[in-house]
Specification:
Length: 245
């Protein structure tokens, strides 16, 4: 018979399902948004892999994770960004109250390095943000990360493109993000234990005064100022004079 501590540890894992358990999951951290918390049965799952799927990067997917990033950083946890598609914008992170010395950006040469770095970050109890743009990990690779996350005390987040929706995912949570307009996301629940898929909510990332403006709608100054002629002209070299004659 298994010992009581071993059984208790097994039942506390996020990837262990217990029948007739209708209560909300306790191992979650709030997202900082009440509507999103209700969608996710309390918040982001801890000790688990969560997958955020979107058609393109930069639509606000990081904005909904800023409260989690700030909380983990303030708890003295390292926050690892694995192969982000863009260089993190430091002024915005500082403005959100996130200490930059707790962020580590890792670039990988191949999928083998990516998987090793992701697993080490999870097992080191760091907060992991991992992008799959360049790696395209297999199901077995993600399963390995999910098992590592189940033994950790931190959430792990995976950012994927909509192309992965053709295949299943071992992640405990899977949501799809779609930009309805600037600063407004449509979030669709694709997978979460204990809740049927298909639920949708809209999340506002800011008020209208802070909305991003599309490039083709930016005002352009077509009236260029006249440049003042210099009072002194530099003498041309003899070689230039010969070319001009």
């Amino acid at each position: 018979m298994p010992s009581k501590p071993l059984l208790k540890n097994l039942l506390s894992r996020q990837d262990t399902w217990r029948g007739r358990n209708r209560s909300l999951r306790k191992h979650v951290i709030t997202t900082g948004n009440n509507s999103l918390d209700r969608l996710l049965l309390g918040g982001w799952p801890v000790s688990a892999l969560s997958e955020l799927v979107s058609q393109q990067d930069g639509i606000g997917e990081l904005s909904i994770l800023l409260p989690t990033l700030k909380r983990c950083a303030n708890e003295d946890k390292l926050c690892v960004w694995l192969d982000p598609p863009y260089q993190p914008y430091a002024p915005a992170l500082v403005s959100a109250g996130i200490p930059l010395h707790k962020l580590l950006v890792v670039r990988c040469k191949n999928s083998r390095e990516w998987l090793w770095a992701a697993e080490q970050a999870i097992r080191g109890n760091a907060l992991l943000f991992a992008w799959t743009n360049q790696t395209q990990p297999r199901y077995t690779d993600l399963r390995k990360l999910q098992l590592a996350a189940a033994d950790s005390r931190s959430p792990a987040f995976l950012f994927s493109s909509t192309a992965v929706l053709k295949a299943s995912s071992p992640a405990l949570l899977r949501i799809e993000l779609e930009a309805l307009k600037a600063n407004v996301l449509l979030i669709t629940l694709l997978k979460l234990r204990g809740k049927a898929p298909g639920a949708k909510i809209q999340v506002s990332l800011g008020d209208e005064s802070t909305e991003r403006i599309e490039l083709d709608k930016l005002p352009v100054n077509i009236h260029y100022p006249q440049l003042k002629k210099p009072d002194y002209l530099l003498p041309l070299k003899p070689e230039v004079l010969r070319l001009n004659t």
